[in-house]
Amino acid sequence: MKIEIDYVKCKDCQSYTCVDCCAMAVFSLQENKPVIVDFDSCTLCGICEDLCPKKAIKIEG
Ligand code: SF4
Ligand code: SF4
Question: Which domains does the chain have, with CATH numbers?
Fold first, then answer.
């Protein structure tokens, strides 16, 4: 299982919900773009996938 950001869908997001919703601080906002900085802390809980307004986050297994 792994988590991925589709940057085509993610483009121009104004909410950065992914950064705010993840209790494990897996994402970091860098130059207005979310980056996965701590994959090892991700519990694959699926919250970011559910809350992303552009459906840009996928958990694939
Ligand atoms: S919430 Fe979704 S669309 Fe917005 S920055 Fe995060 S991954 Fe991109
Ligand atoms: S699946 Fe859960 S722990 Fe992993 S990045 Fe998303 S919100 Fe954070």
Answer: 2-60 (3.30.70.20)
The per-residue pLDDT for range 16-51, each reduced to its tens digit, is 999 999 999 999 999 999 999 999 999 999 999 999
Q: Which atom of ligand 1 is nearest to the CA of 55?
A: 2
The pTM of this model reads: 0.94
pLDDT on residue 40: 95
Best probe residue, ligand 2, of 2, 5, 20, 24 (max atoms within 8 Å of C-beta): 24
- Tell me if residue 8 falls in helix, strand or coil: helix
Q: Which residues line ligand 1 (CB under 6 A)?
A: 5, 10, 13, 15-18, 34, 52, 54, 56-57
